[in-house]
């Protein structure tokens, strides 16, 4: 689980972990640093699925680099965009994408349940 906690009142990682107890949460800066991108990229191959929270991605920004670096090591990437529905335009290789339009806890919890196939 990778996310920028600075903007969220409630954590996307917490919402996913409440649905799937063995979730490991990794928080990064916004924008993520090159070091963080490298560390997360290395870790990505160790997991079955990597869930990434994004916040208004732009072309070639650090969030885009982070998601692409993860995807290069693990094709099972799920992006949860927490604001802009246009993040997917900059992440064309991402196989699973959902947008919450906000980062309130109910929105994050609903997204977590949706990606994990749980009833709402």
Automatic annotation (TrEMBL):
<comment type="similarity">
    <text>Belongs to the glycosyl hydrolase 3 family.</text>
</comment>
<dbReference type="InterPro" id="IPR050226">
    <property type="entry name" value="NagZ_Beta-hexosaminidase"/>
</dbReference>
<keyword id="KW-0378">Hydrolase</keyword>
<protein>
    <submittedName>
        <fullName>Uncharacterized protein</fullName>
    </submittedName>
</protein>
<dbReference type="InterPro" id="IPR036881">
    <property type="entry name" value="Glyco_hydro_3_C_sf"/>
</dbReference>
């Amino acid at each position: 689980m990778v996310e920028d906690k600075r903007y969220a009142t409630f954590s996307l990682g917490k919402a996913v972990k409440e649905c799937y107890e063995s979730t490991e949460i990794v928080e990064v800066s916004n924008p993520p640093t090159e070091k963080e991108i490298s560390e997360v990229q290395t870790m990505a191959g160790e997991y079955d699925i990597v869930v990434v929270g994004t916040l208004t991605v732009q072309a070639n920004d650090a969030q885009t680099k982070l998601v692409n670096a993860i995807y290069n090591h693990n094709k099972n990437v799920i992006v949860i965009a927490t604001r802009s529905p246009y993040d997917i335009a900059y992440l064309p290789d991402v196989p699973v994408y959902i947008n919450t339009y906000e980062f309130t806890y109910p929105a994050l919890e609903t997204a977590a349940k949706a990606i994990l196939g749980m009833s709402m």
